[in-house]
């Protein structure tokens, strides 16, 4: 069996595919377009992934793997749990700089919702994100970043709903950037649960 061309690992190809989805959407994505982007011939991608579907499934699987690893990375980078939470929500959306890019990624999500093989990976990402959000909120609660008695599980569900829905609202009204909208919506949600000065004086 011939060796793979050096310097073009699967991870590079998958990153290129993810970028291209943002630019042309999953329908416009072809093996030829991806191959040209990374300097390979389409036949090489056929050998590695079998088909466009195989490539997209590999991308979905890699995205799920990244979703499980991301919480630990973000926690190490930030002193406070709520700071890590904000980055956990915003960072995956960083590549969606325009409503058009967001729409193209949303089109990929539509595949996730209708194809069982893709849905399995999307559900894994959803569950990993939900656990990470709840863990960070529980940590914030223990550290005094949230008011005593805050229901971390219920709040986590609301945070995840914001992470899923704020992009659609932003893509419609187009005020600010997606990152700004996510941070603002998250702050609006968390503000009532943050300890007041009176709470801190009594603690």
TrEMBL record:
Cited Pfam families: TetR_N
Domain HTH tetR-type residues, every copy: 7-67
Domain of life: Bacteria
DNA-binding region boundaries: 30-49
Record's keyword terms, sorted: DNA-binding, Transcription, Transcription regulation
InterPro entries recorded: Homeodomain-like_sf, HTH-type_TetR-like_transc_reg, HTH_TetR, Tet_transcr_reg_TetR-rel_C_sf
SUPFAM superfamilies in the cross-refs: Homeodomain-like, Tetracyclin repressor-like, C-terminal domain
Ribonucleoprotein keyword on record: no
PANTHER family documented for this protein: HTH-TYPE TRANSCRIPTIONAL REGULATOR BETI (PTHR30055:SF234), HTH-TYPE TRANSCRIPTIONAL REGULATOR RUTR (PTHR30055)
Protein name: TetR/AcrR family transcriptional regulator
Source species of the chain: Streptomyces endophyticus
